[in-house]
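Q: A reviewer asked whether we had any structural model of the full assembly, not just the individual parts. We don't, so I'm hoping you can provide one. Inputs are below.
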Amino acid sequence: MYKIEENPFLEVRASSIHGLGVFVLAELSARTYCLSYRGKLLDIAALDVLGDAQKPFLFQLEEGMIMDGSGFENPARFINHSCEPNCEVDYEDGVLRIYTTRMVEAGEELTFHYQLKPLEALNHPCRCGKPSCFGYMVGKEWKAEFLKLKSRLARGSREGKKALRINKINPDA
Ligand SMILES: [Zn+2]
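A: Here is a predicted structure for the entire assembly that you could use as a starting point for your response.
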């Protein structure tokens, strides 16, 4: 457990969702700024994206950029995914800022939706435990595509296997 210097109302400690999580020490109202996701801004085109996308702490941005939050003072990397999150991430001028989307009570864990694409989501099952849990950290707009991919894999189709091979994904992970 440790206190976060940037925000004295938050602390990092063990989470029932996964590993460590970021917890609130005092009630926060909706639209409260919590933390920035710090890292190195990288161009997706310059990366072995499909391989590197499997690494933790990479935050994919809409604009074809990736924020690599490893190796930085970046407690926001401990914020877990939830299918019913209490935070969202705003991206502006190269900075990712995490805000609450509703009132958050003292003791609650901060979460946001990771919005993973289908291939990445295969390797990221969700254990958020919420009633609406989808079982994987897949973005809302990708759910239909994800289910199609899963059924192709279940049928053992050549197309499904090829997708796994290209993305170095272990379906049993
Ligand atoms: Zn979930």
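A: Points you may want to mention in the reply: Residues 116-173 form one domain. The first strand starts at residue 2 and ends at 3.
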